[in-house]
Amino acid sequence: MAPRYYCVETICAPCGVVKAWAKFTKSEGPVQILDFLNKVYPTEESRPSYICIDKACVVLQAALLNGVWEIWSHTSRLICNPAPLNGSAPNLVVVEYDINGRPHYKRAFNTQACEQLNAWLGGYQSILNRMTVANFNWTIHALLFIHTQKVIQHQLNRAFNNDNEEEEEEEEEQADQGEISFARC
């Protein structure tokens, strides 16, 4: 990392797409995190329903002490880890069925998206540490752009494969009923 900064903080969508990033000087304290969130989500309409962060308890404490929780409490919940059956965040855990039809609980989305991104960026740390601030900014931005493009491409591939599977199932059902169909091009 460029020598003048402590860390790079990212905000990721649950799928892994990078929504924003910032360099933090000296520490990644709760007040700096709140400032970052306020810059990325300046209006109530722009704020997410849930903010999943490993430091949620200290960020909530800082928000209460600084009087900003009143602003955020109308739109967002801070959570560390979703837990099924506790009722506090039912949207974060869903019931999924395995191939034998047995139900089990599954996270509704990847709460570790930023941690996975950080691990990937860690592979570039020795190079980033020797860069000027301008080169660092450009390289981080380019790496995050590449990462986001890969995530989006992965989602598109998965959606395309799901569409093809559904199409094949429909064609099989129609073939069983004696109907003729043509695949989409």
Fraction of residues in β-strands: 15-25%
Widest sheet: strand ordering: 1-2
CA-based gyration radius: 21 Å
Instruction: Tell me the overall shape.
Output: globular
Order of SSEs, N→C? EEHEHHEEEHHH
- Percentage of residues assigned to helices: 40-55%
Q: Give the tally of β-strands.
A: 6
The pLDDT mean sits at 78
**Structural class by sheet pairing and helices:** alpha+beta
Distance between the termini: 47 Å
The helix count comes to 6
Catalogue the unreliable spans.
Answer: 174-185
Largest sheet: 2 strands, antiparallel
Please tell me about this protein's structure.
The strands form 3 sheets. This protein has a two-stranded antiparallel sheet with strand order 1-2. Helix 1 (30-40) crosses helix 2 (56-66). It is globular, with a radius of gyration of 21 Å. 45% of the residues lie in helices and 16% in strands. With 185 residues, the protein is an alpha+beta fold. It has 6 helices and 6 strands; from the N terminus they run E-E-H-E-H-H-E-E-E-H-H-H. A hairpin with a 5-residue loop joins strand 1 and strand 2 (18-24).
Q: Care to give the gist of this entry?
A:
With 185 residues, this protein is an alpha+beta fold. Helices cover 45% and strands 16% of the residues.
Summary keywords:
single chain; 185 residues; alpha+beta; 6 helices; 16% strand; disordered C terminus
Give the topology, please.
Blueprint (H helix, E strand, L loop, with lengths): L6 E6 L5 E7 L5 H11 L9 E3 L3 H11 L2 H4 L4 E3 L13 E5 L5 E5 L5 H10 L2 H4 L4 H44 L9
Parallel strand pairs: 3-4
Antiparallel strand pairs: 1-2, 5-6
Helix pairs in contact: 1-2
